[in-house]
Amino acid sequence: MAGAQQPHDIVIIGAGPAGLAAGLYAARARRRTVLLERAVTGGQIALTSTVENYPGVDEADGFELGQAMLRQAEKYGMATAHAEVTGLEQRDGLHIVRTTQGDYTAKAVILTGGADYNRLGVPGEERLTGRGVSYCATCDAAFFKDQVCAVVGGGDAALDEGLFVTRFASKVYIIHRRDELRASKILQERALAEPKIEFVWDTIVTEIEGDDSVERLQLSSVKTEAASTLDVAAVFIFIGLSPNTGYLNAGYLRGLLKMDEGGHIYVSDWMETEIPGLFAAGDVRVNSARQVVTSAGDGATAAIRADHYITDTFKQ
Amino acid sequence: MAKPRDVSDSDFEQEVLKATKPVLVDFWAPWCGPCRMVAPVVEELSEEYDGKMEFVKLNTDDNPITAGKYGIRSIPTLLVFKEGEPVGKIVGFKPKSDMKKSLDAVV
Lengths: 316, 107
Known about the structure:
heterodimer, A: alpha/beta, FAD/NAD(P)-binding domain, seven-stranded mixed sheet, B: Glutaredoxin, 5 strands
């Protein structure tokens, strides 16, 4: 079922906005293109309640926006496959993409693996995941109707999801380790004006407790180290993201592909990595603005450059 | 090839708990994006495991009693029941190969 028999022109790894936009441009360039995804089409936006900052789209359900991007790229011939990439190799000037569904061979590869939400790494978190510990408010908030919930974080995702949780919960504590927010001003204004939201500043979660489901959080003040407890039925965790680039730290790429300490890939203005024919776009790259629109722009840029690269490199 | 059919609070006991074969229950809701990704995979699995187990889905919005009884706090959740007892659980969207591993472990 994998594409080992016949090389692809372009293999795209990751079906978030960057990968979907790259697929659209690659397919319209009439390149034989396959988009690989291990989980959900849309990436982070598939778990987002609403997207209201993508130009021209007044307000979209995040999942639906991802599906619309997919349909648009498929209309021009992009193929998709459900597979997790385990590593990259090179052979005879071609890229070999190793996956759980077999190998794919490509003239160019675009890395658009995006980023995953970080875990807190505190006791109780893993055991109670799916039992009140959640990384997806749009999936799980409705189970906590008229209950007290907490959100951890101070960025856009924390406030956006915190506001979403207020549709169901009787009260939402937003626990943030600093005394100011990184989130965009418009989200700050909404959160500060929402009567169900109470901010808990300068505070970190040290433990999540509960027998069968979340019952309370152990908190600690970062300023005074004073400990306290907070009774909640759920805790939604949005404390930043890490790029999905771990699989690139192996094989021939190890040491060749330039990354920062956080695992983000350095690219040129054309989304080129250090490796000819290997591109990176969206949240996996250094200095991504981490927006749907900027990731889509990155993806389009990478696909346009990959098209030129193939023309220049593989001409007869 | 029967598609996974809907079960409810009222017929859950008859359709799932008293079933002679193992039953996979897909807990979902219309507002849940990832649930819409799981549904087609569950449909494929229902064909591949035809005869070995039954596949049903339960809308947690319309059937809060059953969802509450089994402590569903996150969807999509897939529960496998055997002789009236939950014997397997998959929370969140997982690749089909992972789902098959989980099913093969209990069927």
